[in-house]
Amino acid sequence: MYQNKISLTPQEILEKDFKIDTRGYRLKEVDQFLDVIISDYEQFYNIIDALEKEKADLLREIMALKQELRNARMNVEIAKNSSDTSEISNLDILRRLSQLEKAVYGKDDE
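User: That's the sequence. What structure does it adopt?
Assistant: Structure tokens below.
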């Protein structure tokens, strides 16, 4: 993402040739300075890559948490709406359990 805004890559800096003039800069000093710049650029690229990966992971986590929140809200709404019928469903469950016990342990308990 940010790499599109950076003009030079470390390799381009490394391969840059300067014209030598009679009154030009000292070549050794320029090379040493360019080495520092190259090192910084490599660090920038590594930092940017790490941040982009972290951002992608966080966006995935946000999406998962949003979905979890939606599900929780739906469950709360369902629970609110079904609170009136919970006694009926509990009674139904007890009846079904009783019928299941009769089927498993024998039909006639008399």
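Helices lie at 10-14, 27-82, 86-105.
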